[in-house]
UniProtKB/TrEMBL annotation, chain A:
Cofactors demanded by this protein: thiamine diphosphate
Protein name: Pyruvate dehydrogenase E1 component subunit alpha
Enzyme class: oxidoreductase
Keywords, in A-Z order: Oxidoreductase, Pyruvate, Thiamine pyrophosphate
Annotated organism of origin: Peribacillus psychrosaccharolyticus
GO biological processes: branched-chain amino acid catabolic process
Name of the encoding gene: pdhA
From TrEMBL, chain B:
InterPro entries given in the database record: THDP-binding, Transketo_C/PFOR_II, Transketolase-like_Pyr-bd, Transketolase_C
Matching CDD domains: TPP_PYR_E1-PDHc-beta_like
Protein name: Alpha-ketoacid dehydrogenase subunit beta
UniProt source species: Peribacillus psychrosaccharolyticus
Keyword Oxidoreductase part of the UniProt annotation: yes
SMART domains noted in UniProt: Transket_pyr (SM00861)
Pfam families in UniProt: Transket_pyr (PF02779), Transketolase_C (PF02780)
Gene3D superfamilies reported in the protein's UniProt record: 3.40.50.920, 3.40.50.970
Superkingdom assignment: Bacteria
PANTHER family (alphabetical): PYRUVATE DEHYDROGENASE E1 COMPONENT BETA SUBUNIT, PYRUVATE DEHYDROGENASE E1 COMPONENT SUBUNIT BETA
Single GO MF annotation: oxidoreductase activity
Length: 371, 325
């Protein structure tokens, strides 16, 4: 008897190809700083373009100085950011002050540009609670160490904004490795189910410590993970400031118009190690790959683009660099001047009203501290 | 005053706070139109609307994250995790995140979240429904853990929990939901968190306990009275923080104590209570402080609950050991 069991019921290969086609990389500026997608060009004034460049240069210097201060023992935990300036800063640049940022541990620059004083960012690195005492009116929370937790929390912040009728969004960041977490999926799925104004950004720098993205998942793009939540997913060239800005701006518009969340994957790279805690990228990355990505440097192409428009020159660049160095020096001084933490401080920060056990322990430590 | 079951008292507490404070939001799996799998949120959505009382996708971790985020936006979330055994799915949101929020932000942010979780044995639930995991959360700085044993306590403690500006775990014993009624005032009232209640006065022995074991202990105390022993029963009501003052005062009076919990011996919080008594009242003790607990196995298959769960007979047996030491 003839059977159909050998016949494929579904064209599974086609299925994967069709999905892949839906997630083409959005690029506006190529590596030479040329506009390759005029239609997607964001509406930015000359001053805004210069400001964005300034922030990227400043942040590159901040990274270099942070690495060096870390090596001198003047900073603690530090996750390098060089290479990700377009991804981090152009996305933040598309936000408004009332938008709330839930960063991962590498996303300190976004907080700084959203209003966190630099010396507090340094205190965060050193491990001082004052680094996390975000000033009133600055809508950020300190960097999240548990990978994925910021995603489920972002869904909650966004739902809160929606319930308040606010025209603002919750924005959160994770890396490529973080897309394998359950909280990553739950976060985008909750925001989708509640049609909450959230922007979920995946900064795909190809490595989670030493594990390449290919070992995280068999998907052809991380952006397509949005499909599982029934929300839009966009893949952008994360070394292209204009593409990142444009994608985030659009996602923000959709969100505040009540159309729900967006997942944005930025294709980027970190030039440095995973963190300064002894990671050595030469153990898992080839110099060929490093070189290939250095050609894509977001600063190089944006500089070329602006120079072509006569909006940027060496003098402006040097002025920015000097400004950054001065600010960093001041901020470190200010961080140094912060009083040392005491156990009584830590106890006081636990609850609004101290429970009995802490009342007792507070007295014990107060006595010790007075000696 | 009305005669209410514990579940009705819990609903009343949520209704009171939904009415009192527009920032209170109640959510979880099936808490909306369905009114909760135990009817704890019955009619609340009808009364307060879907904006205030709503269902979530089936994902405990997401529910925890939602509560944290809503709290960051000034809401006062009352989230439900359908059964305590599912806590593991949301352990990071609870212990890793909201418990630390105030501390990690140096007081800039807080998590004014109440987490309601049904638990407890004796009703033949399937796996991972009845486990007593209060010991896990009691070990996390930043949390408060409350376990009422009666309708009156449940209402007053839940109102306090919802008004507290730090995260509170509110554990509801399933066997106590409908097993008896009690006078519960219709008006709002609060019971302070961290305060125990002496449920029966006595002078020969202190039984320190919580949850469903309060009723078993009261029954044991009655039986022991027939044999000539005067037994005091202290219901902890909050297991974190512990009301050390009330515990110690009782032990100093009686000179003998046992600690009774439904959890396994290696779990729960009985060991902490013993340690506190040892540190603070050893000179008042005429006998060692013994514990009544379940055996150190995984929670019993439902047909084995009866032989596995501690009951008043186990309490009497241990009480006599201490009384005749």
């Amino acid at each position: 008897m003839a059977t159909k069991s050998n016949q494929a019921k579904f064209d599974v290969k086609k299925q994967l190809e069709v999905v892949e086609e839906q997630f083409q990389t959005l690029q506006i500026l190529n590596e030479e700083g040329e506009i390759v997608n005029e239609a997607a060009m964001p509406d930015l004034t000359d001053e805004q373009l210069q400001e964005l460049m300034k922030r990227m240069v400043y942040t590159r210097i901040l990274d270099q100085r942070s690495i060096s201060l870390n090596r001198q023992g003047r900073l603690g935990f530090y996750a390098p950011t060089a290479g990700q300036e377009a991804s981090q800063l152009a996305s933040q640049y598309a936000l408004e002050k009332e938008d709330f940022i839930l960063p991962g541990y590498r996303d300190v620059p976004q907080l700084i540009w959203h209003g966190l004083p630099l010396y507090q960012a340094f205190l965060f690195s050193r491990g001082h609670f004052k680094g996390n005492q975000i000033p009133e009116g600055v809508n950020v929370i300190s960097p999240q160490i548990i990978i994925g937790a910021q995603y489920v929390q972002a869904a909650g912040v966004a739902l809160g904004m929606k319930k308040r009728g606010a025209k603002s969004v919750a924005v959160t960041y994770t890396g490529d490795g973080g897309t394998s977490q359950g909280d990553f999926y739950e976060g985008i799925n909750f925001a989708g189910a509640f049609k909450a104004p959230a922007i979920f950004i995946i900064q795909n720098n190809r490595f989670a410590i030493s594990t390449p993205v290919e070992k995280q998942s068999a998907v052809s793009s991380l952006a397509q993970k949005a499909v599982a939540a029934g929300i839009p997913g966009i893949q952008v060239d994360g070394m292209d400031a204009l593409a990142v800005y444009s994608a985030v701006k659009e996602a923000r518009e959709r969100a505040i118009n009540g159309e729900g969340p967006t997942l944005i994957e930025t294709l980027t790279y970190r030039y440095g190690p995973h963190t300064m805690a002894g990671d050595d990228p030469t153990r898992y990355r080839t110099s060929d790959l490093d070189n290939e990505w250095e050609l894509k440097d977001p600063l190089v192409r944006f500089r070329k683009f602006l120079e072509g428009k006569k909006l940027w020159n060496e003098e402006m660049e040097n002025k920015t660099i000097e400004q950054a160095k001065d600010d960093i020096k001041e901020a470190i001084k200010k961080a140094d001047a912060e009083p040392k933490q005491k156990v009584t401080d830590l106890i006081s920060n636990m609850y609004e009203e101290m429970p009995n056990n802490l009342v007792e322990q507070y007295e014990i430590y107060k006595e010790k501290e007075s000696k | 005053m009305a005669q209410l079951t514990m579940i009705q008292a819990i609903t009343e507490a949520m209704r009171t706070e939904l009415k009192n404070d527009e920032n209170v939001v109640v959510f979880g799996e099936d808490v909306g139109a369905n009114g909760g799998v135990f009817r704890a949120t019955e009619n609340l959505q009808k009364e307060f609307g879907e904006e205030r009382v709503f269902d979530t996708p089936l994902a405990e971790s997401g529910i925890g994250g939602l509560a944290i985020g809503l709290s960051l936006q000034g809401f006062r979330p009352v989230m439900e995790i359908q059964f305590f055994g599912f806590l593991y799915e949301v352990m990071d949101s609870v212990s890793g995140q909201m418990a630390r929020m105030r501390y990690r932000s140096g007081g800039r942010y807080n998590s004014a979240v109440t987490i309601r979780l049904p638990f407890g044995g004796g009703v033949h639930t399937p796996e991972m429904h009845a486990d007593s995991l209060e010991g896990l959360v009691a070990q996390q700085p930043g949390l408060k853990v409350v376990i009422p044993s009666s309708p009156y306590d449940a209402k007053g403690l839940l109102i306090s929990a919802i008004r507290d500006n730090d995260p509170v775990i509110f554990l509801e014993h399933m066997k106590l939901y409908r097993s008896f009624r009690e006078e519960v005032p219709e008006e709002e009232y609060t019971i302070p968190l961290g305060k125990a209640a002496v449920k029966r006065e006595g002078k020969d022995l202190s039984i320190i306990t919580y949850g469903a074991m309060v009723r078993e202990s009261l029954k044991a105390a009655e039986e022991l009275e027939k044999e000539g022993f005067s037994v005091e029963v202290v219901d902890l009501r909050s297991i974190a923080p512990l009301d050390v003052e009330t515990i110690v005062a009782s032990v100093e009076k009686t000179g003998r104590a046992i600690v009774v919990q439904e959890a396994q011996k290696q779990a729960g919080i009985a060991a902490s209570v013993v340690a506190e008594i040892t540190e603070r009242a050893i000179l008042s003790l005429d006998a060692p402080v013994l514990r009544v607990t379940a055996a150190d196995t995984v929670f019993a298959f439902s047909e084995a609950e009866q032989v596995w769960l501690p009951n008043y007979k186990d309490i009497m047996e241990t009480a006599k050991k201490v009384l005749t030491f």
